[in-house]
Amino acid sequence: MSMTEVEVTGAASIDSRAGKYLTFVLAKECYGLEILKVREIIGLMDITAVPQTPEHVKGVINLRGKVIPVIDLRLKFGMVEADHTDETCIIVVDVGSVEVGILVDKVSEVLDIDATDIEDAPSFGTEVNTEFILGMGKANGRVTILLDIGKVLTQEDVAGLLGANA
Fold first, then answer.
1. Whole-prediction pTM value?
2. How far apart are CA 98 and CA 113, in angstroms?
3. In angstroms, how far is the first alpha carbon of the chain from the final one?
């Protein structure tokens, strides 16, 4: 493979991360999700707890007759659970063939991030899994952690949610 082919191949993989991201806040840090994975944003509503689910699975909601599992992203990431505020909301996302609600502190805005403004996730050594991070987006003078929601929720999470959703 020539140097030109390597450069073109590398540029193509970086370019695939460019696009629109819905940004939200968890514990004062800014995160982003690919806008095409987002179904809708809803205010906090009653969540029905489901017995024997992991701590980060808060339960299910009834969204216009459809049962949607809800995951507290703070707990999924090992953060401290926070009190809910007027800004706390649920982002309904597509994970494979399943719709899942993720509980976040607040939604910020939709950003259009160019490929040149996205860097790979830093390496923290073998103990820290950064596989679920698409990259680090630089916009509006701050860094946004861009998430691959399909990798944030593991196969076990989705399988468990399908069971709770059945």
1. 0.82
2. 27
3. 49
